[in-house]
Design a protein that fits this description.
The structure holds two protein chains of two kinds.
Chain A: H1 7-34, E1 36-38, E2 44-46, H2 50-57, H3 59-89, H4 95-105, H5 112-122, H6 129-136, H7 147-175, H8 179-187, H9 192-203, H10 205-220, H11 224-229, H12 241-251, H13 255-282
Antiparallel strand pairs in A: 1-2
Helix pairs in contact in A: 1-13, 2-13, 3-7, 3-10, 7-10, 10-13, 12-13
Chain B: E1 4-10, E2 24-31, E3 36-40, H1 47-55, E4 62-67, E5 70-71, H2 77-80, E6 82-85, H3 97-107, H4 112-125, H5 141-153, E7 160-164, H6 172-189, E8 193-197, H7 200-206, E9 209-214, E10 217-222, H8 224-229, H9 234-239, E11 246-253, E12 256-259, E13 262-265, E14 275-281, E15 287-289, E16 296-306, E17 311-317, E18 328-333, E19 345-349, E20 356-359, E21 362-363
Parallel strand pairs in B: 3-8, 3-9, 6-7, 7-8
Antiparallel strand pairs in B: 1-2, 1-4, 4-5, 9-10, 11-12, 11-14, 12-13, 14-20, 15-19, 16-17, 16-19, 17-18, 20-21
Helix pairs in contact in B: 3-4, 3-5
Classes of the chains: A mainly alpha, B alpha+beta.
């Protein structure tokens, strides 16, 4: 029989320690809060699953969750096609490609809170380019007063901020396609659309999966930009999950419910990412057996 | 199907001045309808450039391409109706084998039942019938390469099928099968096939006519035996054959040809003048000779290798150990003979009907 060597445990110890301090311990702290009612730093009561039940029934929270899902879906629906289109139209080589790459990447380099401030000013009807232009055109635009306007402005801001990331990923994916594919397609008489549909899109599957996951997770956790731009208003039209959570935990100091909800929040993200990942893995690799030809 | 006439030169850089600036030096060449041709040469000799010019992927910077006397220089591969198989198999990942084969026909708007008929026929020819409905992405490299080939063959009216080192990624034992398949297809369909390779065995077994290229120049076009027996250029002698032709520095004068000061041949009409030439003789035609025979040279053996079916002897002409350029000679000797040992001085016969003479790398006699 092979002797059992327990030394391997020692070798993974550093990783275990790192993960413990970066993920497990903070998460356990949250778990700890979620099952207690903290009345004051000295007094705390164990309440079991009470907070989870309360949080699930909370209308405000359900509203924030729905808004959040709507926002994330909109972000993906706009940014992924737009990013692909942008990448397809970017020059492939020469100084033009470098110049365009730098230009496209600029918005990614701006800190989140600055993005919020930029758009706050941009959208002002008195001095902002966007707001003033819309006002001049006779459009009663107000991201502070009109819920739809606020919502669209936040979406537009996110599209402006993050579409370049999708575009850059797709650009890298496109450059990795060997020339022979385009040459073969040209010999096969493929139209531009067929080249996109049968060569570029399938070859982009890997980077698109990363783009979708990144954009989904980031948009699902969006906080700073809408906080700076609208503060979650008007009313709570642009109050997304993170902001709701922060209000609860830091603003009202309801640590128990906030902790309970952040656990649910965490599980939602994990679950959705899992579903997305598996679905995208399947698309394009599953066998088309039985598909007829001719 | 078409007769292809080339009269062109190509440089990737603008304003080529010297020969080195050209990827292809000016050349004139004809590929006959229904012929099997190979473009053979080392990497960077311009063979792929030439192929891409024929297919229309590259436009020559000078001159043009004619298909059946019609100038097609400005036309795309699609308009020229060319099929091309690349070094790495190109398949459409999301499609099945059948859809891959049908793709060129579908793009040309052919009726569905006709497409199916044609796809089935080609699949059968390529032994892909059993795999028609599975996704092409999951197949092995040789099957993928067959699909790339099939996409070219599926079009009935294709002018020529071009191959750009198509067997590079194929396992050796499958190479033979695919090569045989290609020959078979050539015989059945009578298509013009042009095959680019750096492997002389591949070129010589596949093609009726081999174009040997080096540094942007087509140095000889001929059958396998012509390339072997009468290399028009020292490069051909050196590149074809294993090992390549022996080249000895020689001198021609009124009294005849001499190598290293020893007269080996009488003067004749073709060999005149008084200057340095190169004597070329294949290792297969170098034989052991009785010392002091006219037409033989004394040489010191430096290496004797048993290659299995023959012995390969490497020697230096002259009985000193000084290694000069143009004095190295190799001989393939049958194992039945008395094989000389390293250090022996042997006389090797270098003059015969297969001996060639070169001046400035070109064949003169």
């Amino acid at each position: 029989m092979k002797p059992i060597n327990q030394k391997a445990w020692l070798l993974i110890l550093p990783v275990v320690l790192c993960v413990a301090f970066s993920a497990i311990l903070p998460l356990m702290t949250v778990v700890n809060y979620s099952v207690q009612d903290i009345i004051s730093p000295e007094r705390r009561v164990f309440v079991g699953t009470e907070w989870f039940k309360a949080v699930m029934r909370d209308d405000d929270l359900q509203g924030a969750l729905l808004r959040q899902i709507g926002f994330s879906i909109s972000v993906l629906l706009v940014q992924i096609p737009l990013g692909i289109a942008l990448a397809l139209s970017m020059p492939a080589k020469g100084w033009k490609s470098s110049a365009v790459l730098v230009l496209v990447a600029i918005s990614l380099l701006i800190p989140w809170n600055v993005v919020g401030t930029i758009w706050q000013i941009y959208g002002r009807t008195d001095i902002g380019l966007l707001g003033a232009t819309l006002a001049k055109l006779g459009f009663e635009y107000s991201y502070t007063g009109n819920a739809t306007h606020a919502w669209l402005t936040v979406l537009l801001m996110d599209v402006w901020h993050w579409t370049p990331l999708v575009a850059l990923l797709c650009y890298a994916g496109l450059r990795a396609i060997p020339d022979a594919y385009y040459q073969a397609a040209s010999i096969d008489g493929a139209s531009k659309f067929a080249v996109f549909r049968y060569i570029q899109l399938p070859k982009l599957r890997g980077v698109l999966m990363i783009a979708v996951l990144l954009r989904f997770m980031d948009s699902f956790m969006i906080y700073t930009e809408p906080f700076v731009l609208t503060g979650g208003g008007p009313g709570n039209a642009t109050t997304f999950l993170s902001q709701y959570l922060t209000q609860k935990a830091v603003g009202q100091f309801d640590l128990g419910p906030a902790a309970a909800f952040s656990l649910i929040y965490f599980l939602i993200i994990l679950l959705l990412c899992f579903i997305l990942y598996n679905w995208m893995q399947r698309v394009g690799t599953q066998d088309n057996s039985g598909g007829n030809h001719g | 199907m078409a007769r292809i006439d080339l009269d062109l030169a190509h440089a990737y850089k603008p304003n080529p001045q010297r020969d080195e600036d050209y990827a292809l030096l000016p050349l004139k060449m004809t590929f006959n309808d229904g012929g099997a041709y190979a473009l053979l040469g080392p990497s960077g000799c311009g063979k792929t450039t030439l192929l891409n010019i024929v297919s229309g992927l590259v436009k020559p910077s000078q001159g043009g391409v004619k298909f059946d006397s019609v100038d097609v220089t400005g036309r795309t591969p699609q308009q020229r109706n060319i099929a091309q198989v690349f070094q790495f198999p190109v398949i459409y990942d999301t499609m099945t084998v059948a859809e891959n084969l049908a793709f060129p026909l579908r793009n040309r708007g052919m009726a569905a039942d006709k497409i199916k008929q044609r796809v089935d026929k080609i699949a059968e020819m390529l032994e892909l019938s059993g795999q028609l409905n599975i996704r092409a992405a999951g197949l092995a490299a040789d099957a993928k390469q067959k699909i790339s080939l099939g996409r070219g063959l599926v079009r009935e009216d294709v002018s020529a099928v071009l191959f750009d080192e198509p067997l590079t990624v194929i396992d050796p034992h499958l190479k033979w099968q695919l090569r045989r398949k290609l020959k078979q297809i050539h015989q059945e369909l009578k298509l013009t096939l042009i095959y680019v390779t750096h492997d002389q065995v591949e070129a010589l077994t596949f093609a009726e006519q081999v174009v040997v290229m080096t540094r942007g120049r087509a140095v000889q076009i001929g059958s396998a035996s012509a390339l072997f027996e009468r290399p028009q250029h020292t490069f051909v002698g050196h590149f074809i054959g294993s090992p390549g032709m022996n080249f000895l520095s020689a001198h021609v004068s009124a009294s005849g040809v001499s190598v290293g000061g020893l007269r080996v041949m009488a003067a004749n009409a073709k060999l005149d003048g008084d200057d340095a030439i190169t004597l070329g003789v294949r290792p297969e035609y170098v034989t052991l000779a009785v010392p002091e025979t006219f037409g033989a040279l004394p040489a010191t053996v430096t290496q004797a290798q048993d290659i299995g079916t023959y012995w390969l002897i490497t020697a230096h002409v002259g009985n000193d150990h000084e290694k000069r350029d143009g004095s190295l000679i190799r001989a393939r000797l049958s194992p039945e003979q008395n094989i000389p040992k390293v250090g022996d001085v042997v006389w090797l016969n270098v003059i015969g009907t297969h001996t060639c003479f070169y001046r400035n790398e070109e064949l003169i006699a």
